[in-house]
């Protein structure tokens, strides 16, 4: 398990799946805001890639996020789009509603940076988020990510086009906050 100051990132367990499905992915508005595709329900027991991990998929590493203190499941985190030629990847995360606003998101970003830069030897990490997602922007910027551009009207979200902000962090700019 990778450890930050408050959260751990571990493998997906079978028991995580119904919790993530009902508390995260059944939320249409949250899914529409966080994912690059239209919401559709996940059938219980299905092998939907948002929940069931394919360990053979090299470019995509999903984690379950737990509280270090007690091990309670609080969300998901992913290093995706891993490009071993350009040595870059994207990061994504989603916390259960009850876990938001407690500093966990900032810590998850820190742990994903450790995984990307130290464990995987990448040189650039990237985040795309809606321009009104203050908590995600702040979680990224607290870890040194800088705003590199605005993708105007790039996301169709519940009936309207919204802007996305693209943030990047290079390994030489990164100041590790935790040992991971
Ligand atoms: C985005 C998300 C991962 C952030 O994690 P979090 O644990 O809620 O964020 P934190 O508690 O670490 O807060 C980070 C900063 O944002 C601020 N913040 C938190 N919630 C906020 C809100 N609703 N509005 C404005 N600022 C907020 C915090 O005060 C903190 O700022 P500080 O460091 O200056 O004190 C989490 O809220 C989440 O999962 N949201 C739903 C899914 C989502 O949007 N995922 C990202 C898709 S790209």
TrEMBL record:
Q: Which organism is it from?
A: Microtetraspora glauca
Source superkingdom: Bacteria
* N-acetyltransferase domain sequence ranges: 7-163
Entry keywords, A to Z: Transferase
GO molecular function terms here?
A: transferase activity
Q: What SUPFAM superfamilies does the record point to?
A: Acyl-CoA N-acyltransferases (Nat)
Tagged with keyword Isomerase: no
Name of protein = GNAT family protein
Annotated EC:
2.-.-.-
């Amino acid at each position: 398990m990778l450890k930050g100051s408050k959260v751990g990132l571990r493998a997906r367990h079978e028991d995580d799946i119904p919790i993530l499905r009902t508390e995260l992915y059944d939320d249409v508005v949250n899914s529409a805001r966080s994912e690059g595709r239209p919401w559709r329900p996940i059938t219980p027991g299905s092998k939907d890639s948002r929940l069931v991990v394919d360990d053979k998929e090299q470019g995509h590493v999903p984690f379950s996020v737990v509280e270090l203190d007690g091990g309670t499941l609080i969300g998901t985190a992913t290093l995706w789009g891993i490009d071993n030629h350009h040595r870059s990847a994207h990061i994504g995360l989603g916390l259960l509603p009850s876990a938001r606003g407690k500093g966990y998101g900032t810590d998850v970003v820190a742990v994903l940076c450790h995984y990307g830069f130290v464990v995987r030897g990448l040189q650039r990490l990237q985040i795309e988020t809606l321009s009104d997602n203050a908590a995600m922007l702040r979680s990224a910027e607290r870890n040194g990510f800088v705003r590199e551009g605005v993708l105007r009207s790039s996301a169709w979200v519940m009936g309207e086009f919204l802007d996305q902000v693209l943030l990047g962090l290079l390994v030489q700019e990164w100041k590790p906050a935790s040992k991971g």
